[in-house]
Design brief:
Keywords: Transferase. This protein is α+β, with helices and mostly antiparallel strands. The chain folds into two domains: about 100 residues, Glutaredoxin, CATH 3.40.30.10; about 110 residues, Glutathione S-transferase Yfyf (Class Pi), Chain A, domain 2. It has eight helices and four strands, in the order βαβαββαααααα. α4 runs parallel beside α6. The longest helix is centred in the middle third of the chain and has 31 residues. The radius of gyration is 17 Å and the shape is globular. About 35% of the residues are buried.
Length: about 220
Amino acid sequence: MTITITAFERSPDGGKGLARDTRVRWALEEVGQPYQVRLVSFRAMKEPAHLALHPFGQIPTYEEGDLALFETGAIVFHIAERHAGLLPDDANARARAITWMFAALNTVEPPILELATAMLLEGDKPWHAERLPLVKDRVRGRLNPLSVRLGDADWLDGAFSAGDLLMVSVLLRLRSSGILDEYKNLAAYVARGEARPAYKRAFDAQLAVNTGKPSPG
């Protein structure tokens, strides 16, 4: 059965890999599963056909036969469960990898998204100058223990897993803020994720949509 995911017709990030369909593309590339992409406009995202797939009118969605999923974490988890390559065989290691998936989305990403909102949408507010340092400190409050836990390891728990895929994807959002550069081991961790061939294929495919140029390979 053909896998079909949805993505922005024109991504707000211009193809920098921050749109959440990149995470799903990356997961599918890691496990070697072919997929098709249906591009949707912002208008189409709020129309009944798309809302039937994603009740909140967002992307990505995932369709395979009679299965339709939304929410990036759930989609990546489904891919990792169904195909080898993103979750360890050992039961305990598998549980730890899943824990890191939840940690990336539930613990680390929220303050990073708050920072993105503060930087992109609140710059003209009278309280912006006072609030921004507080938001940045909340991000550091997550990165400090993450940096300690990672230490000098390549990945969070042994081999690369879906937990790393999501954590790297989340941390990528910090690049423009400069905060990631304060943590050399986390910056190197993100760079290792970006260097993976599967990530490069996913990034190039998403970039091609936004530049109109075919992705290499």
